[in-house]
Amino acid sequence: MQGPFGYVLTPSNHKENTVSAIPFPYGASPPTTDAAERVRELEIQARRFRAIIAEQDAELAKRDKLINELITEAADKA
Question: To the nearest 5 percent, what fractions of the chain are helix, strand and coil?
Answer without folding.
Answer: 60, 10, 30
